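Re: that chain you flagged

S.,

Sorry for the slow reply, it's been a week of failed gels. I finally had a moment to sit down with the sequence you sent. For the record, here it is as I used it:
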Amino acid sequence: MSNPFRESLLSRQAPETCTVVIFGATGDLTHRKLIPALYNLAEDGDLPPGLRVIGFARREKSDEAFRDELEKICREVSRQGVNDALWKNFSERVFYHQSEFQDEAGYRALGARLDTIDAESGSKPNRLYYVASAPEYFDDILLNLKKAGLSEAKPEGWSRVIVEKPFGKDLKSARALNEVVNGTFQEKDTYRIDHYLGKETAQNIMVLRFANAIFEPLWNSDHIDHVQITCAEDLGMEGGRGGYYDSSGALRDMVQNHLLQLLALVAMEPPTDLSADGVRDEKVKVFRSLRPIRGEDVAKYVVRGQYTAGSIKNREVVGYRQEDRVNPQSQTEAYVALNFFIDTWRWSNVPFYLRMGKRLAKKGTEISVHFKNPPQVLFNRESGQDDRNVLVMRIQPDEGISLRMLSKLPGAALKMEAVKMDFHYSTSFGKASPEAYERLLLDAMAGDATLFARRDEVENAWKFIDDIENAWHGGTPPPMAEYPAGSWGPPEADELLARSGRVWRRL
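Prediction finished late last night. Pasting the structure tokens below so you have them in one place:
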């Protein structure tokens, strides 16, 4: 008998040759993520033959100077190193186009250059525009693409746009940006990128749930006690990020996009098929079902905090308010923890706990599903320990899945110990997982938007976040908790779970 789930996985479209135009080509994202991703795809033989890249930025430089800069960084960060012959072949198809983002003439010149490149290569006029600039230029870039006639697909070709985060800073700005995007490109040609969804473990969540009979029957409130999602970072405000971060904060910078997207994959119902809209329809239902946290409830169900001076890996570090470009009186959170519920049949009264913090003891992102204890009879009657089975999906840095269960210790006495079944991508498949941007760029070239956010996903996620932000910045906001750098966060976050007899899982 055929397996529709497997067949739909195997029927993904192949990526097509195109010209990738990167706006903001002199920035770190281009140098450290996008170009290395494209090069590694070429190294693996996955890059469509004849693909071209045009970097669009404001600084003056030649094609050769641009290529030299990219090569230097790529040699530092590429997961596979750099092969000289392959780099030469790859870089010969990389070009630089100088223009201000607001200069319409620069876009018309870009259009002429694209036409010339297509004519010389004999390829179809497929264009993939990647908006990797600072957010304040998003509107300028999109509107000028339309004015120059570049957003419209040419005969026998296609025209698509990838928009980087942050996609707005609240519901109002997200809606305004969506109006600009949808006035420039059709929704089917719009790819709002979230690199977390390109990670192998994030992609594997649906396979784990829906392709394994041992998990799906248990994936509900009858068997699951609670779910935790943790994103821990040991970094602070390195690289001059203080100014941006202090205007954003942990809730808007990480929770609204990355972590709520992971939540949706964990909590969604089975899609009718694996088409982009089939999957995203179910994710939107999760966001619509989030129980709002408003007004006085914010202080009860949400903890925000800032780190104070402490030690990370035996190195003394300053507190958040002493970081470069951070307001010394800042009321922006570097840590946030939430306790919330999803009002659906499957998740009735199952608490979800989510936390994200800077300058924590260890770097890592994971989802842990904590199953209910078995009846207190037989083996665990007097165990005196937490006997829950825990399924852990590690998103980064060591991607994989583990399952904790109880086993009898060797010997005559009936003693039990928690053991772990552990799956690592790198050891199980003999190679490291591709970088997230590699998969996402290939999907955009193939016209597969499954791992990209749709307009209604973004807006419903912001609706949930805005209720919390409004309570923090209006009326009498709840106090800002503090925790020393190198710890696991403020004690108030521990109390969030302790009042129901639960504890955070240590990474």
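What I noticed first: The domain at 197-433+451-498 is CATH 3.30.360.10 (Dihydrodipicolinate Reductase; domain 2).

Talk soon,
D.
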